[in-house]
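Database export, one record per block. Field names are fixed; values are copied verbatim from the stored entry.
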Amino acid sequence: MQAGTQRRERVRSARVPRHRSAQPAEDFSATFTALGDLAYDGAQVSASVTDLDTGKTLVAIDERIVLPTASIGKILLLVEVSARLTERDFTGYGILDKTPRDAVGDSGIWQHLQAPSLPVADLATLVGATSDNLATNVLLRQVGLDAVRARTESLGLLRTALLDLVRDSRGPDDAPQLSVGSTAELAWLFAALARGEIVDSLTSSRVLGWLSLNSDLSMVASAFGLDPLSHRGTDHGVLLVHKTGTDTGVRSEAGVLRGPRTAVAYAASVQFNDSGLAARLRVLDALRVVGLDILEYVH
């Protein structure tokens, strides 16, 4: 209990800024300590932070290892959907029906709505805003997992993939994870989206628009002081676009944070023994520390 209290005080207490000049601080020592403590206790950790303007690597912690990333892989589906809208393979107003085989629980709100059908663009919006599992499965049925994989490979991503549709339970014949990824590739993906380089500027901008609605600020982004339900615009000089992934024993986040000084692309993943609430909260505390270091760097 004493150790837990000390962690809470360390994370929640006011931090004295390390920088006093016009240049952003580059000391991510708290990030290395927080994630290192998790690793020493048996968790697998990975993190990558790069300066979006200069390309300089700020944090690299086992950034090339492949870890489960849960719903983060849905970004790859959104890229494929956006590319098809750009290429006019189908219209964003095209209506898709939900079917019994698409049904799945957990994240998302469409499963709680009466509407049996929604436009393609609205489904992508639901995925971006609430990581909607039902909307994900309906879109995947429309575009195909093979097409998402082909698009992923065309982007040069070798360690990041959407492996399957969303399932309530995974059997021996199913992919063991919804998605996997390396934080180096995920940080690169967000940097490329921010620069308009994923397929083209229109495709990238559309994906960023969907992801800008993400309402999950429970991990790294918990440090940014933003309104979870309304942060599409700049707030106190801070602008965030990100995606999170949550599963039992998995917490992962990737995004872009722009501040008054500079901007970063970041990704952090932790795979841990989710044996109890204390273990989970410790991971969330560590990810918040990552966010505090990122915020200080850009702000």
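Remark 1: Strands lie at 44-51, 57-61, 67-68, 95-97, 117-119, 161-162, 179-181, 239-247, 250-258, 263-271.
Remark 2: The longest strand covers residues 239-247.
End of record.
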